[in-house]
Automatic annotation (TrEMBL):
It comes from Diploscapter pachys. Residues 32-48 have a biased composition (Basic and acidic residues). Residues 18-48 are annotated as: Disordered. InterPro entries: RNaseH_sf, Transposase-MT_Hybrid, Transposase_1. This is Histone-lysine N-methyltransferase SETMAR. The lineage of its organism: Eukaryota, Metazoa, Ecdysozoa, Nematoda, Chromadorea. Residues 18-31 have a biased composition (Polar residues). Pfam families: Transposase_1 (PF01359). GO terms for molecular function: nucleic acid binding.
Amino acid sequence: MLYWKLLSQDTTVTASNYTHQLKKPAQTTRENQPRSENVHPLHDNDRPHVAKETQQTLVNLGWETVSHSLYSPDLALSSYHLFQPLKQFLASKSFAKYEDPKLALSDFFDSQLPEFWAKGISDLPIRWVTVVDNLGDYIID
């Protein structure tokens, strides 16, 4: 499952609004996959979520965050699987209003087949091995 949200221009990400955002995919998972006991979010940033409120929310949800190497963008699904197709999709678009990028992102995400997401997830272990084999050096595809 992919969860994303564009924040308003004047919004700063805080532990409070971040934990509030975590509750939406948690609710969706409970409704759509009630037997899913193991949820392992993979955040696209390398900094651990250290705010006590965030850590407690993850514990309360029963989620174990998948950790990845510090400063290793090669392991973030967005970096190695999502950004190139998204860049190509957005290349011909222009945005006149603040809402336009949100609509374009929705169009892009809605147009992806389940196989697109499955491939990104299935490639993750291979990426981990490649990063380890390269001693953490950046991977050029």
